[in-house]
Amino acid sequence: MSRLRLHHHNDCPRCPVIGGEDMPGDEYFELLSLRFNIRVAHKLALEHDLIRVDPLALAQWLEHARILESHLWHVPTNAGHGIMVTLPAGCGKPLIDGNHRAARALRLGEPFFVAELTESETLDLLRLSMNPAIADHFWNRMQASRPHPADR
Predict the structure, then answer these.
(1) Residue numbers of the domain that contains 51
(2) 104 lies in a domain?
(3) pLDDT class for 24, splitting at 50, 70, 90?
(4) What are the tens digits of pLDDT across the range 42-77?
(5) Total number of domains constituting the chain
């Protein structure tokens, strides 16, 4: 009996699995102890106007993002905007969807646009993406924190 072997498009681990378009499962972005469900984030972002991200802020974020260099040039140029969330107490506005698209746009000198979720939408997203009690715990810890001087 042969086993079904699935391959990533372009043999790139970040590209979709060929033949796996109908495979169930959500995509998540993890940042430290926080977990964001990308499908839910897209639903929350539907009604938002897109804003252009400042290239310097984008470059600063991407210094800390996990970018697979070989994947940058596999991303379609029309892949759409990213999604940015708003953490409380000035803890930042991380890009949870579109990091590779953002890196490519930055390298090509093109603008990059995002839908930015508010703090309350971000908390809702966290509660829907992970255990609500754990989401509240980390949210409360962020609210009690002070922003890093480099983030001002």
Answers:
(1) 26-151
(2) yes
(3) low
(4) 999 999 999 999 999 999 999 988 887 776 776 776
(5) 1
